[in-house]
Design a protein that fits this description.
By secondary structure, this protein is an all-alpha fold. The chain is built from five helices and no strands.
């Protein structure tokens, strides 16, 4: 997507970054992610989702279309590949965004920050202790 749109740095940061890729896989496998931060933004993230939708549609079409030329030596995607492509597409659609978090996702965001960035055992600084307390309150939905 980044190359096709000629984005700077191949779209790194605009379409997401390494954490977004790992989060999409985790979400596709488990239905949620604990990774923070997720940075894919706006129209750029929409392009990634559209590309994932095309991947799913293409795999499904190839699986469901019988070859008219009679060649059987070209492999077609299995049903599992089609399901995996759908799961990845759905994960990309549903991942939260930490650049512009919504009030409806603040508890999830706070939980992911706690898991990723704020040590639970013996925070080193007073600010970290206070940050943990605030995030725990947000994560609990209060």
């Amino acid at each position: 997507v980044g190359s096709r749109l000629r984005l700077p740095l191949g779209g790194y940061g605009l379409t997401g970054c390494c954490t977004d890729s790992a989060a999409a896989i985790e979400y596709a496998l488990s239905g949620s992610t604990g990774i923070y931060p997720l940075l894919g933004i706006g129209a750029y993230k929409s392009h990634v989702v559209k590309r994932a939708d095309k991947l799913h549609s293409s795999a499904k079409h190839q699986r469901d279309t019988k070859r008219s030329d009679g060649r059987n030596d070209v492999p077609t995607p299995s049903s599992e590949v089609v399901l995996d492509a759908a799961a990845l597409r759905d994960a990309l659609r549903n991942l939260p965004n930490d650049v512009h978090p919504l009030p409806s996702t603040e508890a999830n965001t706070a939980s992911r920050i706690l898991a990723s960035c704020v040590p639970e055992d013996s925070p080193q600084f007073q600010l970290m202790k206070e940050e943990r307390e605030i995030l725990e309150e947000i994560a609990s939905g209060m």
